[in-house]
Amino acid sequence: METYADWLRARGDDELRALLSARPELLAPVPADLTALAARAATPAAVSRALDRLDRFTLAVLEALLVLPAPGMAALTAGLGATPAQLDRALGTLRRYGLAWGDGTPVTAPGVRQGLPHPAGLGPPAAEVFAGYPAERLTDLVTDLEGEAPRGFPDSARLLRRLTELLADPAELIEDAGPEARAALDQLAWGPPVGRVADARRPVRLGTATTPIERLLARGLLAAEDDRTVTLPREVALHLRAGRLFRDVPAEPPPLPAATRAPRDDLVVRAAAGEAAGVVRLIEDLLERWGLEPPPVLRSGGLAVRDLRAAATQLDVPEWKAALLVEIAYAAGLLTRSGDLDGEWLPTPAYDLWLMRDTAGRWTELARGWLKSDRAAGLAGERDDRDRLINALSEGMVRSSAPATRREILEVLAGAGPGAVVDEDALRTRLGWLRPRRGGPTRERLLGWTLREAAALGLTAFGELAPFARDLLTGDDPEPALEKYLPAPVDEILIQADLTAIAPGPLVTDLARELALAADVESTGGATVYRFTPESIRRALDAGRSAADITDLLTRHSATPLPQPLDYLIGDVARRHGHLRVGALTSYVRTDSAATLDEILADRRAAPLRLHRLAPTVLASGLQRAELLDGLRRMGLAPVAEAPGGGVIVTRPDAQRADPPPTAEIVRLRPDTRADDSMISAAVRALRAGDEAARHGAEHARQAPSGDPPRSPAMATIERLRAAVDRGGRVWIGYLDQQGQASSRIVEPVRVEGGFLTGYDATRAAVHRFALHRITGVSEV
Length: 781
Known about the structure:
The chain is an alpha+beta fold. The protein has a five-stranded antiparallel β-sheet. A four-stranded antiparallel β-sheet has the order 10-11-13-12. It starts with a helix and ends with a strand. It is about 45% helix and about 10% strand. The chain has 33 helices and 21 strands.
């Protein structure tokens, strides 16, 4: 008899690629052969993820295959009320996902029955639900229902068959149980088919049954699974449903609202582009501030509420939007913590590279980070199940369903026609049909948050999806469609006599950074108004700018001559700046002989000690005390360590201390739900080769050419591998194992990135990942 693995083995390469594309989790890691693939596809986790991707009608077809005794096309059509074309489409989806198999009458795949414990809301058949009853209990049931005891020796199998026959048409039994018992059955008829009662296994007969539940138990209309659970047999439920499997399962998705106004694509894209430019400016402003004054990391992880509120005040946005901006910056890899303990939230080196891109490119990175992030910014400030506060940037923000839910919502908006506004109710209905198993309170909340965040990020405007957001969803580059609607950065400002400056648009990065030092933002919008104050000028001077630097900057970028009041303000603040000096010293050198300090300062060996004179007999240093002591001793001097009170500190010469190395948190990798096509093709080849090796032996694997492994320069090796990826050919490589032993491999490269080569290893009949630094060379096969 053909098995599920045999059916998979008989599929063509295109069908296997479709299966792996629909269920990419089966590729991690690539199974050894098709038998292993079949076993992995039947695991509970893999089946559950596949079921989560089914729409309501396709899921109903799968449930019908489980409950119908003879699930042919006619039975499915009658049970679901669908057309043959609709059923063919659903069965094709189930076969593509590997949840149903067989070339004739479809059969559910292994593991599906366990993944759907109550298909169509129905319980097990009577033969299964009463299988746990002892023979004596079955005899009592059959005796009460037939009016006489069964003849012969009590046989459980024969009694189960007879009980099943009696329950095949339970109309008289239900009527005899009374209206109260019928009402209890109606509560279970459409699922779930289980209920909770006290002492469910108590012995009860027709003559002793008094309550409605006892009357149902005595007639076999309910079965006791354990002491507190009763189950409605499938035959009884189908009778109560009048033979229907489902109340209402539409084969097509609920329609989206029709257009209520004339299409206004230009207005939508301009409004969305304005929001996109705004969010880029806000994140840049936030990270510039945090680069100078970083907030601390909480001991429990995350950002303190006071720091989030301070950021919201500084950016002039609500707290929920401040949390969104912080989470987007974190998801895009622009923000991270500086250490495991007592760290700070700081911009990453990637932020400086991000600043070098144009506005459209910056927005694209932010939008992609948000779309793939598994963090829900709307949770900031709420409490978890243990009544603990959920802080922004903490692990409590993680919701694994967030990226899939965001994409599904945006795809529904993309499917709406021009001028059609899809409200939350319509979205909720549509999502309930598209992904019925993913419903619940979390999705309800993510729905509202996603709509709010998409509008704030510039993906939507007036309830419609922007055209460049459609490019983002399909994997295309959204920058060309967005760039033409964004205002070009300007390098010119209008300085007025009232000590204000107006930026008529977004400023170039360098000018924006310098102007933020010398002036305070007074208002934002289409134009930004800056105000010069003594405090802002002093801030620029404190940052190392001179009065001439500030004046030259403003003169160079001002469209009008520099007003006299501003010139006077800069000069006045600069004259008073720096008269008093405040510093911090880490260590010092003190002696009663000023001549000794003169000798130290004149010695070239003292240059690394970073010494400067505070008084005739006192030198200060920026080094730690232990480093300063070692440096002076290397100069031939004999210093001693001094306590704050002036006493000598006695130390052991062998005592050493090491500062813990700084660590940086790596941003969580967000796995993509779509597998790479080249990786899928390589996996199919590996599965076919593994199948051949399993059937005929490992000698069928491709043998590498004889001779020493190839050798080539490192740069030439990488270039040849990339060329092989582009043309799709095989290459011969030399590879060093962990013991340094070289071996030859025949490889079909799939990708070269992150210091690794990923490809199909024909000599091992498997997809393998090779470290580039261990590849000795590349040669053509």
